[in-house]
Amino acid sequence: CQINRDLRIERTATGELLIMPPTGSETGGSNFELSGQLFNWTKQDGTGRGFDSSTGFILPNGATVSPDISWVKLERWNALSKYSRTKFAPIAPDFVVELRSPSDTLKDLQDKMQQYMDNGVRLGWLIDRKRRRVYIYRPGVAVQQLDNPETVSGDPELPGFVLKLEEIW
């Protein structure tokens, strides 16, 4: 995965490679907006580190994933060795966002979100721009579906972070 930096490549827990095309311009613009909103909150809050879609993480099950947006609590990030932080970090983010692009199937993204939950992610948002839906994932509870919300809150996992969806849709 690290050798082919221009491609978005993930590896499943069973070693299968998943090669994903670059996103289209509209999806990329929405992803940029998402990143900007999380960046602003992260800088103001100061309790974690944010990452974009070019970042790879190795989950406890061995899968290598690159969420569209992710965030890790600072104490967990700082507990990793400096060497681990320069590679695909062997850590499940605390928070992930997957933004559905036209080439993504909803089922594949739902499976990916469940994998995140099964591997220690505390909060996940699957944003389906086409249907204007947000699916909220937390471990051990049923998925919550929001239809055409104006905002979505990260509380209590990301206290005070509210994503405004106007620019995302």
Secondary structure: number of strands: 12
- CATH fold-level assignment: tt1808, chain A
Stretches where pLDDT is under 50 for at least 5 consecutive residues are none
Widest sheet, order of strands: 3-6-7-8-9-10
Largest sheet: 6 strands, mixed
- Count of the separate structural domains: 1
**CATH architecture classification:** Alpha-Beta Complex
Highest CATH level, the class: Alpha Beta
CATH homologous superfamily assignment: tt1808, chain A
Name the shape in a single word: globular
Which strand-content bin applies to the residues?
25-35%
Overall residue-averaged pLDDT value: 90
Derived structural class:
alpha+beta
Radius of gyration: 15 Å
- Counting DSSP H or I runs of 4 or more residues, the number of helices is 4
From the N-terminal CA to the C-terminal CA, the straight-line distance is 30 Å
Q: H/E series, N to C? A: EEHEEEEHHEHEEEEE
- Fraction of residues in helix: 25-40%
